Automatic annotation (TrEMBL):
Any one Gene Ontology BP term: terpenoid biosynthetic process
UniProt name for this protein: Probable farnesyl diphosphate synthase
Keyword Transferase part of the UniProt annotation: yes
Family, as annotated: Belongs to the FPP/GGPP synthase family.
Length: 332
């Protein structure tokens, strides 16, 4: 497998803003969201395929399972958030592609482990049998381990200035730590069958899902502008944006577990109720949870409004999330 991030094609040195060309803007000069999002997801998927390729040593079952877990679908929301934040400045596209790929590896790791029999015991993910169903439970555990390691290797091997790689590693590690996704997942499992106040669920959601979303935005911004006192206001706005956006994504996931079907979800619907998991949907009711998600997305938009046109992509991702909610959970 590859670990280096040497610019791999003729885009070396081309910025994330420059790579799309004039066709990405409509007649009004507005960036067309479908163009940059499709292009961004494709570039990150190419980076994933490259970084997880077998090279000369042949493909082991573990590597085949790692590729299965990462390369087959997914909305790529976290990678797109990273690219959108990276577009705040003229960050080299190849660097953002690899950072986005590392984030998606880590996200896939959390999904593979989340689906295990000892956790949510799910058989369907992204429209396919889950990794433990296809490859066995032991391999699925190792896929998570190896994807996590490979995400850090990808960041540590980045062709990036100064201490940027170590700062990126720190952000990603924090996001999946006991204060982040791992801690949130532990709380999630401890609440099964319990009556819980909404505040507790919100705090859990911020950890189990929100922390990686926050890191995705911060990592993109870190590639673009670095972290120092001069950018404190920018990071403050981005942190508010990503806190709202990340929580909204998990609230929407809770709602869609109730409202969407297998074809739309690529997962088995109704799993939260069947497993007696308290969620925003079960505690607030569908309509209130839906309004909560919409309010969070509005707050996310307000947080980045002062950043102006350079936050255009981040604003477009809010519109995308709104449309996704309206499509799969229409108002009753
Ligand atoms: C699913 O995330 C798990 C949550 C944290 C909500 P996504 O809904 O982003 O899953 P993919 O990557 O698109 O499959
Ligand atoms: C999982 O939340 C969050 C992770 C950290 C992976 P869910 O258990 O609700 O995610 P889905 O519904 O299985 O995708
Ligand atoms: Mg879960
Ligand atoms: Mg789950
Ligand atoms: Mg869910």
């Amino acid at each position: 497998m590859q670990t280096g991030s040497t610019p791999h094609d003729d885009r070396a040195g081309v910025s994330a803003n420059g790579i799309l060309g004039a066709q990405a803007r409509g007649a009004s000069g507005r960036l067309l969201p479908e163009i940059w999002m499709q292009d961004g997801a494709k570039r990150v998927e190419e980076a994933l395929a490259r970084l997880l390729c077998a090279e000369d040593d042949g493909e082991t079952e573990l590597m085949a399972a790692m590729r299965y877990a990462t390369l087959h679908g997914g909305k790529r929301t976290r990678a797109l958030l990273c690219l959108a934040a990276g577009a705040l400045a003229d960050t080299p596209a190849h660097m953002l592609d690899d950072v986005g790929a590392a984030i998606e590896m880590m996200h896939a790791c959390t999904l593979v482990h989340d689906d295990l029999p000892a956790m949510d015991d799910d058989v369907l993910r992204r429209g396919l049998p889950t990794v433990h169903v296809k490859f066995g439970e032991a391999t699925a555990i190792l896929v998570g381990d190896a994807l996590q390691a490979h995400a850090f290797l990808t960041l540590a091997s980045l062709n990036a200035p100064g201490d940027t790689p170590i700062a990126l590693v720190r952000e990603l590690a924090q996001a999946v730590s006991a204060e982040g996704a791992a801690g949130g997942q532990a709380i999630d499992l401890s609440l099964v069958g319990k009556h819980v106040e909404l505040d507790r669920i919100v705090a859990m959601h911020r950890m189990k899902s929100g922390a990686l979303v926050r890191a995705s935005v911060r990592m993109g911004a870190l590639c673009a502008v670095g972290v120092n006192a001069a950018h404190a206001a920018l990071y403050c706005a981005l942190d508010h944006y990503s806190a709202c956006f990340g929580l909204a994504l998990q609230v929407i996931d809770d709602i869609l577990d109730v409202t969407a079907d297998t074809a739309a979800l690529g997962k088995t619907p109704g799993k939260d109720a069947a497993a007696q998991k308290p969620t925003c949907a079960s505690i607030m009711g569908l309509q209130e949870a839906r309004q909560f998600a919409l309010d969070l997305l509005r707050d996310a938009g307000e947080a980045i409004a002062p950043l102006g046109p350079r936050a255009e992509r981040l604003a477009q991702l809010i519109q995308w999330a709104n449309a996704y909610l309206f499509k799969h959970a229409p108002r009753a």
